[in-house]
Amino acid sequence: MSINIETRYASSPAETRTWDTAQTRQALHISNIFEENVINLVYTHYDRYIAGGVKPVKPVKLETADQLKSTYFLERREMGIINIGGAGTITVDGEVFEIGFKEALYIGQGKKDVVFASNDAANPAKYYINSAPAHHSFPTRRVTKADAEVVTLGALETSNHRTINKLLVNSVLPTCQLQMGMTELQPGSVWNTMPAHTHDRRMEVYLYFEVPEKQSVCHFWGQPQETRHIWMQNEEAVISPPWSIHSGAGTSNYTFIWGMAGENLDYGDMDVCATTDLR
User: Fold this and answer.
1) Which of 1, 114, 138, 260 is the 20 to 30 A CA-CA neighbour of 190?
2) 254 vs 90: CA distance, rounded Å
3) Is 161 marked as a binding-site residue?
4) Mean pLDDT of 219-235
5) Domain CATH number, residue 13
6) Where does Zn(2+) bind (predicted)?
7) At 6, is the pLDDT very low, low, confident or very high (cuts 50, 70, 90)?
8) Does residue 275 sit in helix, strand or coil?
9) Is the CB of residue 131 less than 8 Å from the CB of residue 77?
10) DSSP secondary structure, 105-152, as one string
11) Which domain holds residue 236?
12) Residue 133, burial from CB neighbour count under 10 angstroms (0-12, 13-18, 19+)
């Protein structure tokens, strides 16, 4: 098998108050995402979301898994992919898509054969994968940064000057519920997603990357009045429950990919918490 899927269960705010560091990481932290020629995924019971990745030195075919109880992976699902490695191709039912660094591919529900490959085995692609249940089939489409809806927020004075690239969102292309994008922090800025917010209508997963060697990112989670933290290293991901804030600060600038799913495709649907009200 070229695919491994681990199941994570949903937890309530009351339950998480008793977690120690090990329990927190076991429930929310995702490591070992990019393994050569193996698709490593986490299936979370938050909105039945799947997150993970693959580093194909040789072509790797997407297979189904027992958790899905389906004859093929995308029988009842849609998928978003963003490449954070070398250039490569993703073949979807015989159609080949060239996917470069920081480019995305949306694959609609019902596509049967998906094959991940790299153009250069010495510099393999690193495909970060998100998937959510789908009720309708939309066209498969490649999205580059030039196609994205781009928003610049923050300022160097508040340490959060950042560029948000909305890649797989409903203002760019149709999806059922999956949305993905990439936020790049400018040199000298370290804070992301401030002011912090929650959105009970959807959950979220963050992948932190371009974290410089010997640097880290502190990811904050939990209810606004009872926050917690998880230390993240380069190319690691974290699950954010819908009742939790999802914010971070690094010891350097970095980039992160956000992916989310739920009942609301409105990107601006946020319950904002003032920074001074965080506890």
Assistant:
1) 260
2) 26
3) no
4) 97
5) 2.60.120.10
6) 197, 199, 204, 246
7) very high
8) helix
9) yes
10) EEE-TT---EEEEES-TTS---EEEEEEE-SS----EEE-TTTSEEEE
11) 3-277
12) middle
Position 198 pLDDT exceeds 90 = yes
CB 66 within 8 A of CB 7: no
Question: What are the structure tokens assigned to 204, written together?
Answer: 């979220």
Report residue 154 as tokens.
């923050």
Question: CA–CA separation, 233 vs 217, rounded Å?
Answer: 7
- 219 annotated to a ligand binding site: no
Give the list of residues 6+ apart from residue 22 with CB closer than 8 angstroms, or none: none
Domain count for the chain: 1
pTM: 0.97
Tell me the pLDDT tens digit for each residue of 17-68: 999 999 999 999 999 999 999 999 999 999 999 999 999 999 999 999 999 9
Q: CA–CA separation, 238 vs 142, rounded Å?
A: 25
Residue type, 239: I
Answer yes or no: is 6 a known binding residue.
no
Give yes or no for residue 174 having a pLDDT over 80.
Answer: yes
Which candidate, 232, 199, 236, 229, places its Cα nearest to that of 51? 236
Q: DSSP letter for 187, please.
A: T
Tokens of 14: 């009351």
pLDDT band at 264 (very low <50, low <70, confident <90, very high): confident
